[in-house]
Write a structure and sequence with these properties.
Elements: H1 2-36, H2 44-51, E1 107-117, E2 120-131, E3 134-147, E4 150-159, E5 171-179, E6 184-193, E7 198-207, E8 215-226, E9 233-242
Antiparallel strand pairs: 1-2, 2-3, 3-4, 4-5, 5-6, 6-7, 7-8, 8-9
């Protein structure tokens, strides 16, 4: 029995170093793994959120987003006429363009637009005259009825540069005309001025040598009656027109 006990003690002393080495190796391996691993602390985000304030500045990179930029539509090219056009109408705004400091110089312009229906004609006429000492601009609405050698004309003429209270006080006239032939005609003109309160009666002879409007000689005699002045006045008129 003593021998068995001694043998057991010897075996125990022999096995103890090997067993201790295994324990040391196991402990050293566990320690290495524990020190080699990096563990993130729990609830870090919650703590950071609690510690943040309105004055904190974050430098975290935000997720990139693509900008949706729409290309502008191409418009068709437009051409604009920027060239200055000559204004043939004489107005207080452009009257300085016709000044040449010649007391006898003047510039006149006339435009007519009309429409005909059978023997009846209706139209408008614009006349303007500029001189260093005066400027005039008139608009005329006229009508004409013509059949064979006889014609009857009516017109109403107003001054465009007159004050507003005088715009409606123009001159109303009517004139029967009879053509003796293709060159000579006789015309009797009656007119009334609502502004001056004058009445005028005129007889006129017209000669057209070329049977058209290229040349026109006129001679007439008239009498003027006025409601505001006396006596009756008489006039003798001559005029020559050339058309180029």
């Amino acid at each position: 029995m003593k021998k068995l006990f001694l043998i057991f003690i010897l075996l125990l002393f022999i096995a103890t170093p090997a067993f201790s080495d295994d324990i040391v190796n196991e402990n050293s391996d566990d320690t290495t793994e524990e020190f080699g691993m990096i563990y993130e602390p729990e609830n870090v985000e919650e703590e950071n959120i609690e510690e943040t304030s309105a004055e904190d500045v974050f430098l975290n990179s935000s997720p990139t987003e693509q900008l949706n930029i729409k290309k502008s539509k191409k418009f068709g090219t437009k051409k604009y006429d920027l060239s200055t056009k000559e204004d043939k109408n004489i107005t207080p705004q452009n009257v300085y363009m016709f000044q040449n400091f010649d007391q006898y110089s003047s510039k006149s312009s006339s435009y007519t637009k009309q429409k005909q229906h059978g023997n009846f004609t209706l139209g408008t006429k614009y006349d303007s005259t500029y001189s260093p000492d005066s400027t005039s601009q008139t608009n005329t609405l006229f009508s004409k009825y013509q059949k064979n050698k006889f014609s009857f004309n009516t017109s109403y003429k107003s001054n465009s540069l007159a004050p507003l209270d005088q715009r409606g006080k123009g001159t109303l006239s009517f004139s029967p005309e009879y053509k003796l032939n293709n060159k000579i005609s006789v015309q009797n003109i009656y007119s009334t001025s609502f502004l001056d309160k004058n009445k005028k009666s005129e007889i006129m002879f017209s000669l057209k040598p070329f049977k058209d409007d290229r040349m026109d000689f006129n001679i007439g005699a008239s009498q003027i009656y006025s409601e505001t002045s006396a006596p009756t006045r008489s006039q003798l008129n001559f005029s020559t027109k050339f058309r180029f």
